[in-house]
Amino acid sequence: MRCVTSFLVLCILMFFGLNIFKAVEVKAQRLVPLCKISGYENLGKCPADGNMFCNREMADRNVKYKRCDCQDTIRRKQKHHRCTCYMKLPCNQ
Hints:
By secondary structure, this protein is an alpha+beta fold. It is 40% helix and 32% strand. It is built from 2 helices and 3 strands, in the order H-E-H-E-E. The chain has a 3-stranded antiparallel beta sheet, covered by helices on one side. The longest helix is centred in the first third of the chain and has 29 residues, at 2-30. It is elongated. The protein starts with a helix and ends in a 5-residue tail after the last strand.
């Protein structure tokens, strides 16, 4: 009786585990790939609204960015920031 109960519990756990794995796999397939565009390093730190700052700094009339990130770096003992923006495919639009 103990073996049958253990076998049933194992089957139920495997069923739940496989369903969770399928849900993660489907979610990953729905993600839209984005093009990454990096800007130059500029003097100064990222401000508090770094994402909006980078969106303005990398602004272009023809390009709409999905999101932008601001990263602080130190080079030659000076503080710099670099903007990285992401846009939808195709990258040439």
